[in-house]
Amino acid sequence: MYAQLPNIFLHTNYLALQEISTDEAILPYRGGTDWGDNGIYIAMHTHNFTTTDPNIRNTWNFITQSISRSITALKTLPTSKDPSAKTFLAEARAMRAYYNMLSLDLFGIVFSKDEPLETSVILRGTQAVEYIKSELLAAEPNLESTATHGRMSKEACWGILARLYLNTAVYKDIYATQFNFPAADMDKVIEYCGKIIATNKYKLSPEYFSIFDDNNDTNKEIIFAVDQRADLNGHNRMAYFSLSGDQFPLPDYVNANGTDGPAITSDFYQSWVSAYGTIDPAVADPRFFKQNLGIYTNPADSCVPAAQFNINRGILRGQQYGLIRKGGVFVKCVNGNMKVGPLFHDTRTRPTLPVIFTEKVDYTTEGSNYPSGYRVSKYEFSRKSVSGRNFGEANIVILRLADVYHMLAEAKLRKNNDAGGALNDVNTVRASRTARQLPPALSSMNLDILFRERGFEFYWECLRRTDMIRFGKYEGTWTEKNNNNPKKRLFPIPQTAIDAANNIKDYLKQNDSY
């Protein structure tokens, strides 16, 4: 039932749909030779999705397979003699609701059935929302609070309910010119977020990037996550996707590197700049950047013991430094430590082109070159990943306590414009990041500031598209994107799915505009 979650959250699946379609990420045709993929990433970013897009199809398939597996569990578990069967049954019901919520968010439809051999009833709009809500509420009493964050706990269910209520106005009328958020829905968001906070079970993390470390299975901020373990061959693509092909984060593995994938847009970067004015965001906000390699501020720090070598985290800009690979091996200092120096695009057979990440990234020749765009190194590059693509250990966050405070703040703003209460909730999160520099407290709060703050806190965590739609920003203009068609709020149902169901007339009606 849980096994496909890592595949749903693979870098080219849910992450691509939720981030590359937004102002947070762009993936150009790198150097005219890499990541062309028949234009699917350009189409994703410019909102020119097609019914044959393989990433949309794969995400659809993994979600629907997971719904199917949940139904199999629901059918099988009632006859089990296992003492935990009642809890597992509740988890299966809640997970079926969660997978259907992903389907509703991405494709606008929900699949309802209880018997594996039945044909699902297709639900949309209000019916879909009420079905998911009823399933989560039915499961909640039998869920455990002691479950690991890799399983659907009682608190995770509350958090998913809060997220559902927060987006209910969108899900009920996805193409609306303006969304109206009923006070009753916002009261439910406040109720469920308050219940999670009141447990005192979860704690905001003093070090922001520890939430995304290899050993984050013990991080107290995470409520619900994709459980990954190296021995189960969890994927490391969250770390590898954005890094340069000439960044080698692991002294033990000479073939573990990045792939020159997506970068942040200059628009998203400028939101940080405008927020902090003359202060560099790397200085102002610990969520933006964490320096782990001393050579960036001390050029003499160019020999590092292998056990102490860690690449920087956060948003990476400018000249990059790291392990130097020559002839298939890493260069070492005289004392046996790892030689660290400026990087060049050797793996791209461009040894004179330095790895200098630039703000400019777009679909021009210059903006599509390998160094273009500031990169994201948010999840730790797993020390067990022999290729950079496999053996990931970091659990992928689905829900964490900071989001609970942000949902609470948003509900207060949308219900009665309680700017003071919302400001306090957001500043609670800011004030918790005490491990390094402390971000300054905000002095005012409204929906635009909250939207900006959600970008700072949750960038590249698969929330941005949903946030942009809810905040009325998805039809906006940003780097290489000016499509303002509201029908693109939903992705197309894959043509393969429609073809497979063509024996039932009008069973899978395609979304508008496709």
- Order of strands across the widest beta sheet? 4-6-15
The unreliable regions are none
Largest sheet: 3 strands, antiparallel
Radius of gyration over C-alpha positions, nearest whole angstrom: 23 Å
Derived from helix and strand composition plus strand pairing, the structural class reads alpha+beta
Mean pLDDT: 97
Share of residues in strands: 5-15%
* Number of DSSP-assigned strands: 16
Question: What does this 3D model show about the protein?
Answer:
This protein has 514 residues and is of the alpha+beta class. Helices cover 37% and strands 10% of the residues. The protein is built from 16 helices and 16 strands. It has a three-stranded antiparallel beta sheet with strand order 4-6-15. A hairpin with a 2-residue loop joins strand 9 (325-326) and strand 10. The longest helix is centred in the first third of the chain and has 23 residues, at 54-76. It is globular, with a radius of gyration of 23 Å.
Give the structure's gist in a few sentences.
This protein has 514 residues and is α+β, with helices and mostly antiparallel strands. The chain has helices at residues 5-8, 14-20, 40-46, 54-76, 85-107, 125-139, 154-172, 183-198, 237-240, 266-276, 281-284, 401-416, 419-432, 447-458, 464-470, 495-500, and strands at residues 110-112, 121-123, 222-226, 289-290, 303-304, 313-316, 318-319, 321-323, 325-326, 329-330, 338-342, 344-345, 350-354, 356-357, 375-377, 396-400.
